[in-house]
Design a protein that fits this description.
11 helices, 262 residues, binds 3-methyl-2-oxobutanoic acid, 15% strand, 8 strands, 42% helix
């Protein structure tokens, strides 16, 4: 997949879309050789790669540098760059400067969290020729307002509000919407109401596609075990064991051997 048109084609053909986060050059090179459809340089980079407690610590320079590193490793997939905390709340001029920086760094599209108060900005970016991905449900940049990483849209009022927001994002020109931590049946209703595809994380099986954080699905964080996460390898222990093996080999003088020497 290398354009947003494929996102729509996949939904039309009911073909699930696979998206993975990626923040760096070496994993971008591996992903470029897989059949994964698209890559999100998410602001989760601030937590996963920089050790912050939330995504509010991601800023434009951080996002720009990670988008550029990913783009240098991957040329065959759609790259979506996350607009960091408040970057789209500082007026149209600042917004367009930020979008320009992410696109010039190598993103093909940007993701903007939320709907309320964002619609004018999203419409302006989309009308400027930059594809915009929306993000509803648990919007991590609002974590201090939401009061924690909780499932959203659980009451009928909240569910209706989310459906309304999703429609307004589609009307504003989004090419797809991430649905994070929402009940599966609500994600199903939103997906059916919209023409554009939905990409779920903790949103059940009825969305048009799925996104996971690369390091989470590789099992790199032993403490992070939310219900929605499936780990596809035990990366933490595998890497730890390789490092200990290297250390043993150095300390026992087994590495380097004659074949590894000049
Ligand atoms: O920043 C991110 O990784 C995200 C995904 C969880 C959708 O926004």
């Amino acid at each position: 997949m290398n354009s947003i048109l494929d996102f729509q084609n996949y939904k039309n053909k009911k073909k699930p879309i696979s998206v993975i986060t990626c923040y760096d050059h070496w994993s971008a090179r591996i992903i470029s050789e897989t059949s994964i459809d698209a890559v999100l340089v998410g602001d989760s980079v601030s937590m996963v790669m920089h050790g912050f407690d939330s995504t509010v610590n991601a800023d434009l320079q951080m996002m720009q540098s990670h988008v550029a590193a990913v783009r240098r490793g991957l040329n065959n997939k759609l790259i979506i760059g996350d607009m960091p905390f408040l970057a789209h709340r500082r007026g149209m001029r600042e917004l367009m400067k930020s979008v320009d920086m992410l696109i010039k760094a190598g993103a093909h599209a940007v993701k903007i969290e939320g709907a309320n108060g964002q619609l004018k900005a999203i419409k302006h970016v989309a009308e400027s020729g930059v594809p915009v991905m929306g993000h509803l449900g648990l919007t991590p940049q609002s974590i201090n307002q939401l009061g924690g990483y909780k499932v959203q849209g659980k009451t009928s009022d909240k569910a209706e509000a989310l459906i309304k927001d999703a429609k307004s994002l589609e009307d504003a020109g989004c090419f797809a919407i991430v649905l994070e931590l929402v009940p599966a049946e609500l994600a199903k209703s939103i997906t059916e109401e919209l023409t554009i595809p939905t990409i779920g994380i903790g949103a059940g099986k009825y969305t048009s596609g799925q996104v996971l954080v690369l390091q989470d699905m590789l099992g790199m964080n032993k403490e992070f075990k939310p219900k929605f996460l499936r780990t596809f390898m035990d990366g933490y222990d595998l890497i730890k064991s390789a490092l200990n093996s290297y250390d043993d080999n150095v300390k026992s003088s087994a590495f380097p051997n004659d074949k590894e020497s000049f």
